[in-house]
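Example (one chain per record):
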Amino acid sequence: MAVDTVNTTNSTYTQKDIDNFQTTYDSAQSEAEAKVKELNGLKLTDKDGKTVECKTVDEWMTAFKERGPLKYTSGNYVLGGPNDKNSVSNLCKQVCDKLNNAQQNLEVAKGQFQSMKAMDDLLQSGDLMGALFLLCSTRSNNMQDSLSAKIKAMQERNNNVQQMNIALGQQYAKNPRDDGTIKQIEGNISKANSDSQLEMIQVNDLVTKKNQAMDMLSNLTNKFSQTMSNIIGNMGR
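Predicted structure:
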């Protein structure tokens, strides 16, 4: 029986889904390449007057963080601050996030699809214990991947909050009467903190599920070991 559908605790993937994920990833990659070409064409310069050119959107994100503020040849600074949703750096981050998400979705779908095919082969051969081991280990790995992604997102959000707090302090020092900008930054900080609280709940849930998967795998290992010991013991009689 050929497997063309992957059943997981959260999703069901078919070969058609994987093809769609591949198309989405290819589109995101093309968009990222176009953004890199566009940014390189702007001939932005850093605070030392050196022209900034990068090969990937990830490199551009690093450039905005470490070499900013960047500016056009005309002398206008790229804001690049976390409180400016329309800044070049934030638009670049959107493209970067889109590409990373598309890549992650594609890799997860492929991995789960291949695991289900392997599980089907084990079941067809009568290796029920092997199939159970594979199911538990796959679930544990999926939980770990999701947990790592959540933790990374929280770290990025915490870094953004730190940058926004710096920007808020600078705004108070520069122009404390600019209520519009100050309230905007404060609103963004509040939203980021709320998102972090929700994400922490999700992280705790993933940790619980991962521990459950690990416990199940450990129990299966112990039972398998005990069964084999009993079989060997009976053979010696």
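Caption: Residues 1-10, 79-86 have pLDDT under 50 and may be disordered.
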